[in-house]
Amino acid sequence: MENIQFLGLNLIVWIALIIAVIIIAIGFIIFLTKKKNKRIAQEKVMRSENLLSALGNSENILSFEAKESRINLSLKDYSLIDEAKLKELGVSSIVKTTKKITLVVGHSASQEIVDFIKDHQN
Q1: How far, in whole angstroms, is CA 88 from its chain's centroid?
Q2: Superfamily of domain 1-122
Q3: pLDDT tens digits for range 32-85
Q4: Any idea where the domains of the chain sit in the sequence?
Q5: How far, in Å, CA of 77 to CA of 85, rounded?
């Protein structure tokens, strides 16, 4: 068998180098993906904490439920609501009635926020 050379290196060495570069690239991509996912999770928690604060904290929430893109809440004191902060946090619409408040937040976000509220209720 001939010893095939390319740029002064044996073909087997080149193949090994290419495989090593591919493995390193895959590892780097996995590392970046995990780092991004961690950042996204931290942002979700921060957003949920800020949302809870804008509602007067967990002590102010009597009941709540997620329905599609909405969160329906009954509160002790509706004057504690910071509507500007809610809008800043991505709440697209706030509907107030005498018995409840409805936040339109988006389909996937509503269940995440409700789960966060459940975890932080007294």
Answers
A1: 16
A2: Glucose permease domain IIB (3.30.1360.60)
A3: 988 888 777 667 766 778 888 898 888 888 888 888 888 889 999 888 989 999
A4: 1-122
A5: 17
